[in-house]
Amino acid sequence: xxxxxxxxxxxxxxxxxxxxxxxxxxxxxxxxxxxxxxxxxxxxxxxxxxxxxxxxxxxxxxxxxxxxxxxxxxxxxxxxxxxxxxxxxxxxxxxxxxxxxxxxxxxxxxxxxxxxxxxxxxxxxxxxxxxxxxxxxxxxxxxxxxxxxxxxxxxxxxxxxxxxxxxxxxxxxxxxxxxxxxxxxxxxxxxxxxxxxxxxxxxxxxxxxxxxxxxxxxxxxxxxxxxxxxxxxxxxxxxxxxxxxxxxxxxxxxxxxxxxxxxxx
Length: 265
Known about the structure:
With 265 residues, the chain is an alpha/beta fold.
């Protein structure tokens, strides 16, 4: 199921879907289906343009980022690493968006001084250093004591983040958490962690929408805006997938987990 979900992401979500559409359009041109081929290529180019400009990117991401306001009042979700980074003496380094999440978590930790879980494992390479190790190293370099940082080094996606974090913290009697992740990622993460059994205080980080007014330069395509549009589309699809398929599985798992935690007569 994990491999199928990754194949779906690569083939049917941007940017992979654009490659598929362009190839289809070229094939249609070669077999003399010129009108259909031109329509498909034109629509694809238009979609790429729209998703590459800031106003459209903002329309996609803004509802996700505004779903949870920043709380006044600590599980941190991974989201990528850089393997064998010279900056970390050839160890893994966290990706820029993860660094923003971790710094936000650090600020929360300074206020409440509670145990902090870093959640992220090995996605494809079993021999690689888990993302959680790079995340823990980042936090201890900021000054958090090693004993305060707990690693979930098994999770490969957001769904598993919720399950494995619950398994770790429920044994300690912890069910109320501050959940730190990127603002666009929070709506889906919140659903998963709440369904897993947590009482969740969302702490969004890594905001990507510029709340300033648009100017003429915002209508020129930008790679950063295209990438952010892809992130937003991935999250919307992920929310639908969770509500239709994963939520039921998670609630069944939670019922079994809770029954195992109850003392026997």
